[in-house]
């Protein structure tokens, strides 16, 4: 199958793993397939041959694990109520056999493994649905029903996964209700689909326990509100949403095939695990939870089920080096803490005969489990300790990234290779975690911004043609990084210079073909695509998140509103607006002065310029850009007292970010 095609509305649909949380979104414009440069440079072919030679990529043990317990495989597509495609099981059907010349053979191995899609029995009473979305949905047979561990990203894929399981588990098991829900962490690919499994009313009526780690709801509902637009735009690069699914385009994400793009919701937990270790009985089965906050997610736990001799590592462990920094943009994570939790996990998993995680395939057998967790632990620990050692010797992030390699034993362990995170960008994250953006060189304290520097470099080089000629020479020699560096300046300076743009696109394509990391590949190939086609016509649309946004505290939106206040425009403006929520009873006073908007939960201010009474659903429509001035004046859900003109003035001070900003051009 050559390329993955979905209707226009979904075509550039986007899902964002923000702090590894995901935001679903869509764009209205269809991107034609990338006019990619399928010709592979000899340097790429050589590098691929070296990769294939250095490691046994046939990796029979991983393939056996990824197929073990196979029950059935789905086919076709999952669609939403409107008939739009949310998930296409055939999209990556081309991922089979030997690696094409345009894909790093090690990444291809991971893409093949992630193509092992279906319902799998993990052990007695535990099944997993893999490949129905980027994450796994795990089903555990309780005394009276199914305990569901994580709910994928969208309600459509979650519903399809559980329906598929019911279809293939025999009538007795199929008839069981959902008797418990466990959310392992606050990232959207692990809870977003829950309303496809049971409604809030059903959960309440049947008193279905919803178990989550402390801080889950706050983290889950707020993660993307403030930075959602920028993260969403960058996530288009990271997940390759605009790329065709083919050997010159997207082949995998490293963590799973792709992110589903349906409706996202959330259920509030009824039981929070707040102790470092806490045992709970859920539907007759004893679970021992271990909180691991501030590792892969701000709110996360792992657990063991002693009776079933099984341990769930959530996303603390997986079959890839994970991200200490995630390229779509996020706060960096703590490598030392992460390694520490993995060390503890060695003890917590003792006595287990299987470790299953919420991405990728399980690991069976005490000895192999020990090796699996030890290698993960030592990888993060090595990256941390060696980066710190080199930092203390005065090296900066770029220098450490260039030289630091894992010891051979870790390099040879394919399960910690950089399919998602990479050694190079994680090393920079460790630097950033401790020392921040500044490398202490005075020239970098107030360096010229990129465009200004670019203009001067181009002039120094003797003009654009000279730069392009030098870049061509570098490209011919297989020095794509230098070609890209030169051409970046050229394209910044002259965005319409076709030769520079084309050569930069071709350099990115070769770099994408080289990359072992799927996010690196997607970044390079999306950069190439946008050099050829431009940025998307539409950015993040957040309607799909409505079910989740309804559960998001109003204050998160007010913080985001304050951060959209156009400071220069608001300079010298003083306004006070009362915001009264009729349905929730919240009264907020918003004050603009000194170019700042602050918000306070307080009774309406007597001296306010205007008072806007509204409902939370209407407020969300405004936040989503679905309701503007006209609706505000016409709706029966709103009422304005005081100066309508001042209220209008207030709204004109708020910027609307389209989320389509250019990245490869300035
Ligand atoms: Zn995940």
General description of the model:
The protein is of the alpha+beta class and 666 residues long. It folds into 2 domains: 8-376, Metallo-beta-lactamase domain (Metallo-beta-lactamase, Chain A); 553-652, SCP2 sterol-binding domain (Nonspecific Lipid-transfer Protein, Chain A), CATH 3.30.1050. Helices cover 38% and strands 15% of the residues. It is built from 25 helices and 23 strands. The strands form 5 sheets. The protein has an 8-stranded mixed β-sheet with strand order 3-6-7-8-9-10-11-12, covered by helices on one side. It has a 6-stranded mixed β-sheet with strand order 13-14-15-16-17-18, covered by helices on one side. Strand 15 (301-305) and strand 16 (310-312) form a beta hairpin. Helix 16 (464-476) packs antiparallel against helix 17. It is globular. The two termini are 36 Å apart. Residues 1-35 have low confidence and may be disordered. The chain binds zinc ion. Zinc ion is lined by residues 20, 135, 187, 189-190, 315, 359.
Amount of beta strand: 15-25%
Biggest sheet, spatial arrangement of strands: 3-6-7-8-9-10-11-12
> Could you give a short account of the major beta sheet?
8 strands, mixed
Secondary-structure-derived class: alpha+beta
Mean pLDDT: 93
CATH class of the largest domain equals Alpha Beta
Radius of gyration: 26 Å
Hetero groups in this structure are: zinc ion
Helix content: 25-40%
Number of domains: 2
């Amino acid at each position: 199958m050559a390329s993955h095609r979905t209707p226009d509305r979904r075509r550039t649909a986007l899902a964002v793993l923000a702090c590894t949380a995901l935001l679903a979104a869509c764009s209205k414009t269809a991107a034609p397939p990338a006019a990619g440069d399928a010709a592979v440079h000899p340097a790429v072919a050589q590098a691929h041959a070296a990769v294939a030679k250095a490691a046994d990529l046939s990796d029979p043990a991983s393939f056996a694990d990824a197929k073990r317990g196979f029950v059935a495989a789905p086919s076709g597509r999952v669609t939403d109520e409107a008939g739009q495609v949310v998930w296409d099981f055939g999209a990556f059907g081309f991922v089979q056999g030997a690696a094409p010349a345009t894909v790093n053979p090690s990444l291809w191995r991971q893409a093949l493994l992630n193509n092992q899609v279906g319902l799998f029995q993990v052990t007695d009473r535990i099944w997993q649905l893999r490949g129905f979305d980027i994450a796994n949905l795990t089903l555990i047979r309780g005394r009276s029903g199914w305990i569901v561990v994580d709910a994928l990203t969208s309600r459509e894929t979650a519903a399809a996964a559980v329906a598929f399981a019911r279809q293939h588990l025999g009538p007795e098991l199929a008839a069981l209700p959902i008797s418990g829900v466990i959310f392992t962490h606050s990232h959207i690919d692990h809870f977003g689909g829950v309303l496809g499994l049971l409604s809030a009313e059903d959960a309440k009526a049947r008193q279905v326990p919803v178990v989550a780690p402390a801080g889950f709801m706050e983290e889950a509902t707020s993660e993307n509100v403030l930075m959602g637009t920028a993260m969403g735009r960058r996530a288009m690069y990271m997940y390759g949403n605009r790329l065709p699914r083919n050997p010159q385009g997207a082949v995998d994400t490293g963590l799973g095939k792709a992110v589903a793009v349906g409706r996202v919701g959330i259920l509030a937990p009824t039981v929070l695990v707040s102790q470092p270790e806490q045992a709970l009985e859920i539907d007759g089965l004893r679970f021992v939870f271990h909180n691991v906050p501030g590792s892969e997610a701000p709110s996360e736990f792992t657990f063991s089920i002693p009776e079933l001799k099984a341990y769930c590592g959530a996303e603390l462990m997986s079959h890839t080096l994970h991200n200490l920094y995630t390229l779509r943009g996020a706060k960096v994570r703590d490598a030392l803490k992460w390694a520490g939790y993995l060390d503890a996990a060695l003890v917590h998993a003792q006595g287990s005969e299987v470790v299953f995680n919420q991405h990728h395939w399980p690991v069976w057998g005490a000895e192999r489990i020990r090796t699996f967790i030890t290698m993960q632990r030592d990888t993060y620990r090595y990256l941390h300790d060696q980066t710190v050692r080199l930092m203390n010797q005065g090296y900066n992030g770029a220098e450490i990234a260039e030289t630091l390699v894992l010891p051979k034993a870790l390099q040879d362990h394919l399960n910690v290779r950089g399919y998602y995170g990479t050694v190079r960008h994680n090393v920079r994250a460790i630097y950033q975690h401790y020392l921040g953006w500044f490398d202490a060189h005075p020239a970098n304290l107030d360096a010229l911004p990129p465009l200004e520097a670019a203009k001067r470099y181009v002039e120094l080089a003797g003009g654009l043609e000279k730069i392009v000629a030098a870049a061509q020479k570098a490209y011919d020699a297989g020095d794509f990084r230098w070609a890209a560096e030169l051409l970046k300046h050229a394209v910044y300076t002259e965005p319409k210079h076709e030769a520079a743009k084309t050569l930069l696109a071709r350099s990115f394509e070769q770099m994408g073909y080289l990359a072992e990391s799927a996010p690196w590949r997607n970044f390079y190939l999306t950069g190439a695509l946008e050099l050829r086609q431009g940025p998307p016509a539409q950015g993040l649309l957040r309607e799909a998140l409505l079910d989740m946004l309804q559960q998001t505290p109003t204050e998160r939106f007010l913080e985001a509103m304050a951060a959209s206040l156009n400071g220069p425009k608001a300079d010298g403006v003083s306004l006070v607006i009362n915001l009264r929520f009729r349905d929730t009873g919240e009264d907020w006073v918003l004050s603009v002065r000194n170019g700042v908007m602050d918000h306070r939960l307080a009774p309406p201010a007597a001296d306010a310029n205007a008072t806007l009474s509204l409902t939370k659903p209407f407020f969300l429509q405004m936040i989503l850009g679905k309701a503007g001035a006209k609706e505000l004046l016409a709706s029966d859900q709103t009422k304005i007292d005081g100066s309508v003109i001042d209220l209008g003035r207030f709204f004109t001070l708020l910027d609307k970010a389209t989320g389509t900003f250019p990245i490869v051009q300035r």
